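Class prep. Write one:
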Amino acid sequence: RARQMDRWKGRVALVTGASVGIGAAVARALVQQGMRVVGCARNVDKIEKLAAECQSAGYSGALIPYKCDLANEEEILSMFSAIRTMHKGVDVCINNAGLAHNEPLLSGKTEGWKNMIDVNVLALSICTREAYKSMKERNVDDGHIININSMGGHRVVPSADEHFYCATKYAVTALTEGLRQELREANTHIRATCISPGIVETEFAFRHHNSDPEKAAAVYESMKCLKAEDIASAVTFVLSAPPHVQIGDVQMRPVEQAS
């Protein structure tokens, strides 16, 4: 598998939401594999720190921090144009940024719903479109678009504070399959995959239950959870599949997770 990752050396990957959690772990893993990784987030301090860590660890790639608010299309477009100017374009796009707000269907605030749609659905779709455009204009026929989905994109959890979030992740499931079909109709060998983790120990629950850190901690203490690195391993597994192999959806959860 390591040999299969060789073809990505020196090539450019965009990882959204790269400052913490899964995004940071994926960015690190790809830099380790020799890729030039543009890591974006609203706050780049942590990405800058991670870039320095990768450099001092002697990884053969490089992490390039980029400040971008994914809820703002203008910022996404100017990021893609900066990548084009500085690094020619994107060969791999990892749509990782995502968030959950505790806004039930019967009582939730519209603004929380809109933010989830803006980041989890629209930003993912805009980045996908722009990454494809970047690949097309350089005749890149072996690119890869990976959406970090969720088990919540495959079943609705019986918890009101996650229902709208699940709806956005169901959208990601449909968007990934629609993308696969469109890429095939376009006669490209660019691949589309989604990775659907169950409970991963990151800052996610703390942001989700921001008014109740004890509830968040309880989520992670209830079982041996997946680690962000487990998802990063799944990303390198997907990227290292032979070019004729299309991996549609990797569903992964802790062995102890009930549903």
